[in-house]
Amino acid sequence: MLDRIKERLSGIPLRARLVAIISLLLAAGLGIAGIATTTVVSNFLVRQVDEELHTSAVPLATFPQPGIGQGLPSDYYVRVISESGDVKSNRTDAAVTLYGIPNLPAMTYDEAAASKGEPFTVSSSSITSETESWRVVALTARVNATGERAVVYVALPMVGLDKTVSILTRTLILSGLGIVLLGGLTAWVLVERSLRSLRSVEHTAAQIAAGDLTQRVPEAPPGTEMGSLAASLNAMLTQIERAFAAQEASEVRMRQFVSDASHELRTPLATIRGYGELYRLGALDTTDKVDDTMFRIEDAARRMGKLVNDLLVLARLDEGRPVAREDVDLAELARDSAQDLHALDPTREVAVVPLAAGGGEDDPDPDDPTGQVPDSLVVEGDADRLRQVLTNLIGNVARHTPSGTPAEIALGVRKDDGVAVLEVRDHGPGLTEEQGSRIFERFYRADSSRTRESGGSGLGMAIVAAIVGTHGGHIEVAPTAGGGLTVRLTLPL
What we know:
Radius of gyration: 54 Å
Strand order of the largest sheet: 2-1-5-4-3
Number of strands: 12
Shape: rod-shaped
Distance between the termini: 69 Å
Oligomer: single chain
Largest sheet: 5 strands, antiparallel
Number of helices: 13
Helix content: 40-55%
């Protein structure tokens, strides 16, 4: 039963429930105020009647003879009952018809004395009269010449009080109904106006559900509940839009990645397949041709293996696996890499220099006061991965700059933020601004004329950026002073 009631209530619109609650609370408040007002007014009027009774009753009790109630208004009722049973009253037939007679209790002299003249209320004995109740005071007196004891009842009809309270009650009820009705209408208008913002939120949500993620909730004053709600919803919608945009961009990159990977793998596979078909068809009729073909097949397989290995490295880096943490000396890696580059091209002058030496205009603040290469610059990270970064960078220098051009590996600490900085500088043709902005994209080759044999797979710089990123570092490219390219990476100490 309770669940059914809750279900029905939940189906009522919010605005109707709010207006109903406000109206009920207003009615309850007015009802309580009306009852309190009626009670206060009634008690006040009763006290006035009691004071009037006391003022009139005391002289009557002191001098009950010779006339009963002489000099009193006609609405007073006086009855004297002596101990001998003699009953006297001032009520005339006309007064009885108009006011009726109170139902007086039978009290003894002692009971009347014990009441101490406190007024009390009794009903009327006649249903035809206008008076429904009487206010009565019972006093003791001595009557007759013998001083016989008697009880004197003095009663005053409460017809005026009853009418006043009745009129007041009706007035309060009618005015209360009017106030509740007016309050309900006002509440409906205010609730309707307040919920207008919620309807705009509902409309915005419907548009977003239809696929328009650019929609935003209309702003409201910041100090209000709707203002806070609108700000929170808009912030959430901005995050959702960015997340969807990032997801779409990621899907585009993934499709491009798969397409590029397929394209890169197609060439060595086609090479291997083509030479295999030549061998099957008997076109390789001499030993020299067979040897040359096997060499080409081996070279294609080697390039394909390198490409697959690079893809595997990127896939593992994309998984976000935590890197091994050990002390790695960047100064030692820099010296080893310089020797490796010199071994690749003995005609090339390769030097490890301090960070301030030979920097370009975009170089970080040259803040090495000693002008010396640090003997040791230790960071935390994976030694093999960081070595791979330098291997890829010097490999690019060897492949893409003229033989014999100098190269430097700069090393130092940037004082303003306390990070290790390593730069690989060449003095080759450099890159355009557009090429520099795309150099870390996968399968991107700055020079479209470079073949896969001479230019690599196009994944080397992407791997470098991914490795630096997993170490909490940053990588960028900038022009080298005098021409060339500088690849700068920063790593936290």
